[in-house]
Amino acid sequence: MKRMILTAMLSLICCVVAIAQPPTTKPVPQRKGWNNNENPLYGNVAKVTHTKKDHSQGVGIIYHHVVYNFNAAGDMVEEIYYQDEYGALKDCKTRWEYYPSGMTKHFVRTDMNGKVLEDYSFEEQEKPAERFPASKVAGKTITEDLYDDFGDKQGTETRRFDAKGRILYYQQKSDYEGVIHEEYWEYDEKGRVKMYELAVDAYDMEGGYRKELHSYDAKGRKSEIKYMWVKGGPVALRAVYKYDVQGNLTKITRYSDQTTIQNTDEYQIQYRR
């Protein structure tokens, strides 16, 4: 099943990890081809055009442009890349067909002239069971061994959950290097993430530490994230979220200070009439 995440990349890091609760507006059934808990789509959406703009030179320079088309059932059936994440032109179309259950039936990627680059068909399978269902992990700490492709143990993975089954702590530990990844979460009284902390990331070239403070509007939608890059240090960046009347995310604006725009993600939503 095709997954597309609306949480956009910051120019200063590889990606931003963020978890939010959906708006209070009643959502449509789970979209088979979108499958995005961070920013689900609401209403009868026909098309989403996503552009990323770099404002570091004072003007919005587009470096990413993708169009997503949906059928009347809410499935994402086509993805058209006009530019990739790095600004290089990429003439590519991807199309999906689905079984009634929502599992992918057929996947094909072509260039703009119709030349097939990838083509796969899939047998229908049962939807994989949720790995850590809240009802079974509530209040528990779970540690699992990690193995390489040859079956040799390489380390462990530990997750700690609160009484409602929400993730509080995640650690990845190497048998050879010690702790290589560590994360923490805190929630507000409504169960929304209010703080996320990446405490250790041995492979993050930006320093391996990031703290996020999340804010929400009156409708329960994420309105702002403030980022801290040094332990105990000042907030270096912030991201402001904007939505349309249907509750769909339309823009994320990131600031390098209180007023200077660093980059933006813009989502033009076209609804089916």
Descriptive notes:
The protein has one helix at residues 134-137; strands at residues 45-54, 61-70, 76-83, 89-98, 104-110, 116-121, 141-147, 153-161, 167-174, 178-187, 193-201, 210-216, 222-228, 235-243, 249-255, 261-271. With 273 residues, it is mainly beta. The chain has a 16-stranded antiparallel sheet with strand order 6-5-4-3-2-1-16-15-14-13-12-11-10-9-8-7, with no helix packed on it. β2 (61-70) and β3 (76-83) form a beta hairpin. The protein is globular. Residues 1-31 have low confidence and may be disordered.
Look at the structure and give the mean pLDDT: 82
Strand numbers in spatial order across the main sheet: 6-5-4-3-2-1-16-15-14-13-12-11-10-9-8-7
Tally of separate helices = 1
Shape: globular
Q: In a few lines, what is going on in this structure?
A:
The protein is an all-beta fold.
Task: Please describe the topology of this protein.
Layout (H helix, E strand, L loop, with lengths): L44 E10 L6 E10 L5 E8 L5 E10 L5 E7 L5 E6 L12 H4 L3 E7 L5 E9 L5 E8 L3 E10 L5 E9 L8 E7 L5 E7 L6 E9 L5 E7 L5 E11 L2
Antiparallel strand pairs: 1-2, 1-16, 2-3, 3-4, 4-5, 5-6, 7-8, 8-9, 9-10, 10-11, 11-12, 12-13, 13-14, 14-15, 15-16
Provide keyphrases for this structure:
273 residues, mainly beta, 16-stranded antiparallel β-sheet
